[in-house]
Amino acid sequence: MLARAASDEAAGHNRTGLASLDAGDYASAYASFTKAIEADELYAEAYANRALSLLRMEDSSSALTDVNQAIDLYAKSELCEDINNGDYALAEYLQSVMEELHDINAMDDSLAVDFSFSNSGNNSGVSSDSSDSTGATATDESSVTVTDSGDDASVTLSNSTTSTADATDLTASSVSTSGDDRRARIQDLNVQIAEEITLISSCSFVAALNQEGLSRAYYIRALTLTEEGDYEGAIEDFDWLIAHSPDNAMLYVGRGEAYLKSGAHNLALSDFNRAMALEPTRPEVLIGMGDYWLFMKNYDLALEYYDLALEYAPASSEVYNAIGLYYMDLGDYSAAIAAFTSSIQYNPYSPKTYDYRGDAWTAEASRASSAGQADRAADATTYAAEDYAKADELQAGYASASSSSSSTSWWQFPES
To answer: Are the C-beta atoms of 339 and 366 separated by less than 8 Å?
Structure first.
């Protein structure tokens, strides 16, 4: 089996979780993805999706655990595990083959064994050209040709990457003294080499099938690392993603956010400008530019980009959250409350937004108290408590563990 398929039960729970995720109901999504994992503990996509739901619920630590598990499962399959663990080096394997063949040749001069490393043809054996994307030890333009003049058995490895089976099986100690047995041993070596070629080719195919899922998992991890404050790790993941998809605007937005928070302002602006050049009307790109100018305290430019994002996505809760955080930074708490209320209208399942609005009500209560507006302060305090309670209802312990200082993040895998 080249590509591993999830069980029907697990796939069903995963689909339910994705529907909840699209609706903004992250707690229900998390529950569905957990059921998918319980039904199939090797279901890489379910781990990635659960990480995504955790990220949206601001539990970046747990999200990181899940997304790392997803990446490990995407990168390694049962088929490729022996290759990926690095135990089987091509040089060691070929050396063991040649040592045994030399011993066989020494016992019987009637056996013609060609050890040339050239692109020679093979008679009735196996030939393969395969490239390695699995991380196994590799060599280029190498070949080994084994021929038996008696049985016309041969194998040619040309421009291939391979890994060994247990090298101890290929030592001279297993060589028989009978001429027929020695010929049979050469044929056995041919079979072993052919099996290794098949394994490498299959592994490369699996890696290609998993590339989309692996890229998505890397993107989720990059966002998660940004939330965790590991900006170097996030940038490293974004670098990998951009190398594979250099025209994807959302990758530049994500890396720009990581650069911005790490203090590399010029690199951040460069990435945001690159994203704008690729997709100048995409709301997430416009939010990213707004975040940059808000961070730089250029409030006029920041609001221009947020308002433009709202024109293209008038029902986006994330745009309203960005605007709410903008007004929080300005100290206009009433305007922030209005923006967060609009966000809740479009996504009533987000504990983050209730927590944001709770912070805005708390700040407004403090402002009103300082201004001698006792009734307003009391009302604002009550509303703040209600919003914090709602956040905790949607996700247990959310309000006490979260902070409104984090910027907008995007959970969707960025499609070009």
So the answer is: no
* Alpha-carbon gap, residue 197 to 93, rounded angstroms: 13
Q: What is the CATH number of the domain that holds 64?
A: 1.25.40.10
Domain closes at, from 57, 75, 93: 75
| pLDDT values of the chain reduced to their tens digit, one per residue, 416 residues | 334 567 889 999 999 999 999 888 888 999 999 999 999 998 999 999 999 999 888 888 999 999 999 998 887 654 455 554 444 454 455 556 556 656 666 655 544 444 443 334 444 333 334 444 434 444 444 444 444 444 444 334 344 444 444 444 444 444 445 667 767 776 776 666 666 656 555 565 555 556 788 889 999 999 999 999 999 999 999 999 999 999 999 999 999 999 999 999 999 999 999 999 999 999 999 999 999 999 999 999 999 999 999 999 999 999 999 999 999 999 999 999 999 999 999 989 888 899 999 999 999 999 999 999 999 999 999 999 999 999 988 877 676 555 433 333 333 334 44
Q: CA-to-CA distance for 217 and 255, rounded, in angstroms?
A: 15
Within-domain flag for 282: yes
Residue 229 sits in the same domain as residue 201: no
Letter for the amino acid at 111? L
Do 277 and 307 fall into the same domain? yes
354 with 344: CB under 8 angstroms?
Answer: yes
Q: Which amino acid is at 357?
A: R
How many degrees, rounded to 5, is the angle at CA 268 between CA 262 and CA 273? 170
* 412 in a structural domain: no
Count Cα neighbours of 282 within 13 Å in the Cβ-side half-sphere. 22
| Number of structural domains found in the chain | 3
Residue 317 corresponds to which amino acid?
Answer: S
On whether the CB atoms of residues 360 and 340 are closer than 8 A, the answer is yes
44 plus 22 within the same structural domain: yes
Which helix (DSSP H) or strand (DSSP E) does residue 100 occupy? helix 90-107
126-128 sheet: strands from edge to edge: 126-128, 153-157, 145-148
Residue-range definition of the domain harbouring residue 163: 85-205
Do 251 and 270 sit in the same domain of this protein? yes
Same domain as 371, residue 345: yes
